[in-house]
Amino acid sequence: MRTLADLGELRGKRVLVRVDFNVPLHSGGSDGPAVADDTRIRAALPTIAALRERGAALILVSHLGRPNGPDPELSLAPVARRLSELLDEPVVLASGTTGPEVVQQARALREGELLLLENIRFEPGETENDPELARELAALAEVYVDDAFGAAHRAHASTEGAARLIEERAAGLLLAREVETLTSLLSDPVRPFVAVLGGAKVSDKIGVIRALAPLADAILIGGAMCFPFLKAGRHSVGDSLCADEDVVLARGAIAARRLTGESEATLELPMDLVLGEHFGADATPVRLDGVDVPDGMMGLDIGPRTAAAFARRISAAGTVFWNGPMGAFELEPFAAGTKAVAEAVAFSAAATIVGGGDSAAALVMFGLQDQVTHLSTGGGASLELIEGKELPGVEVLR
Fold this sequence. Notes:
By secondary structure, this protein is of the alpha/beta class. It has 14 helices and 17 strands. Strand 15, helix 11 and strand 16 form a beta-alpha-beta unit. The N and C termini lie close together (4 Å). The relative contact order is 0.12.
């Protein structure tokens, strides 16, 4: 994969930089919406600084949310303000994403100046990898740099189409580090290698389970993901989230391990749970010393015995990969299991890699985001890379 070191002279050149500024917003004050969490913006700063130091003018392109056409609520104006504050430099928000006025703004840039295009998903051709949109984006610059790992698993106009049209192209520092770190996780992990998987659906992570089974020493399964496995083992799950298709997949994963024997990682499931009558912050948590959920109740967190067992596994590991919360951590009564795992990962002496998404949000929520070896900015992209899938945004940089 080409990196910044492979780029030639950049002084006076315009560089189209695909960044991932898909950040949460809050209502803000008199200036309108504001950035609620600037983690992804900060993650792009090293690449921005490196390119500016080499005399490049930067045209930044990002998506925000999933707009259906132009939507003032999803403008990148709050992002431009926050980036300007972080850089202590002016950041101009373009009048749009393409068109004569944007071309004029791009061509007027001088060394070190920054232009942020408006939300690229205001353009319907972005997610369709429309060739005309790709050509318009590519025409803005002489060099292309992709630093948006969180979007690298999508073949979109700004991540794949435009890159293919610009001969001088490379991965930014963030994207290169993400790929290198996650690839090394699979090729040479320090043992014991423990994977912790949670979240809602087995179908979302069955590929990861299959990929990690022959590589990891143990796979700890929590969150709503555990219920299809428990049901496959003939336990009752009550009203817990548990799709029939996920039960089939869980049953297959269990059967596959039995066939392959000790070469496969052990699958470790909860031994106790915290239940609620409904999904809500006002639900009363009920400790269940076991895993058979009665009718009318739903599992919303792993129990304290499971949390302690998972924490012991993590503390004894040489490498830890974590993706997915252990329960409904956004609801205070059901956050304890995810918090226990987050603290175990953060305080572990192992190489700790957290695969973005809700796991990253949990670390931020508990103030532990700076205490892991690597916090991925791409939940879906990190999972697909671990599954062994090709990422279009990475392959175009080979």
